[in-house]
Amino acid sequence: MSDPQNDTNLAASPNPADERRAQLAALIHEAFSEGKLDLAALKRGLVSTLEDW
Q: For a Cys staple, 28 with which of 21, 34, 38, 45, CB 3.0–4.6 Å?
């Protein structure tokens, strides 16, 4: 049985949150500032996107 604390395969697993963040950044790039999500900018971006839709 392997030790979960020393299992290097766990570190190689993709993080679903990182994948979603990257997808959101691709759709509404102005919602991110210095690599962090800016909720106010996200709301503005969503409103703008819906108005254009």
A: 45
